[in-house]
Amino acid sequence: MKPDKQNDPIISHVDEISEILTAHNSGTKKVLLNNEQSGNAITQIAQGKLGPGERVELHAHKTMTEYFYFTEGFGQYLIDGKTFELSKGSFVSIPEKTEHALINTGELPLVFFYFGIAND
């Protein structure tokens, strides 16, 4: 449910949100909250999904810190040249200007919730 005016609550359910392609053209996302709705430094809150073998190529955000919480599957995060294994329950924080790439290494979808915070 979208708010009628600023400061109204936003109530939604991930199962009722349509999947869209991510900005990285790999995997899909369901946007729970966007920057226009947040009214603050939160740029987006979304559920992401990468299919088996899918990857988000190496990139960095100049003015945003990202946070990820993984709920299903197995993967790897490449962060500043180091590889980190991911599974259900993993949490990752990626500071602004940090190069990172995400890979689904499992046989099932890699599912996660993520949000960004603008740092400027």
Overall average residue pLDDT: 92
The CA-CA distance between the termini, in Å, is: 29 Å
Helix content: under 10%
Tell me the major beta sheet. Answer: 6 strands, antiparallel
Enumerate the strands of the largest sheet in spatial order, edge to edge or round the barrel.
1-2-3-10-5-8
Task: Kindly state the number of beta strands.
Answer: 10
Descriptive account of the structure:
- The chain is mainly β.
- It contains one helix and ten strands, in the order E-E-H-E-E-E-E-E-E-E-E.
- The protein has one helix at residues 35-38; strands at residues 20-21, 28-34, 42-50, 55-59, 64-72, 74-79, 82-87, 91-94, 100-104, 110-118.
- The strands form two sheets. Strands 1-2-3-10-5-8 form a six-stranded antiparallel β-sheet. Strands 4-9-6-7 form a four-stranded antiparallel β-sheet, with no helix packed on it.
In short:
The protein has 120 residues and is mainly β.
Per-chain topology:
Elements (H helix, E strand, L loop, with lengths): L19 E2 L6 E7 H4 L3 E9 L4 E5 L4 E9 L1 E6 L2 E6 L3 E4 L5 E5 L5 E9 L2
Antiparallel strand pairs: 1-2, 2-3, 3-10, 4-9, 5-8, 5-10, 6-7, 6-9
Q: Key terms for this structure?
A:
4-stranded antiparallel beta sheet; mainly beta; 1 helix; Jelly Rolls; 6-stranded antiparallel beta sheet; globular; 120 residues; 10 strands; single chain
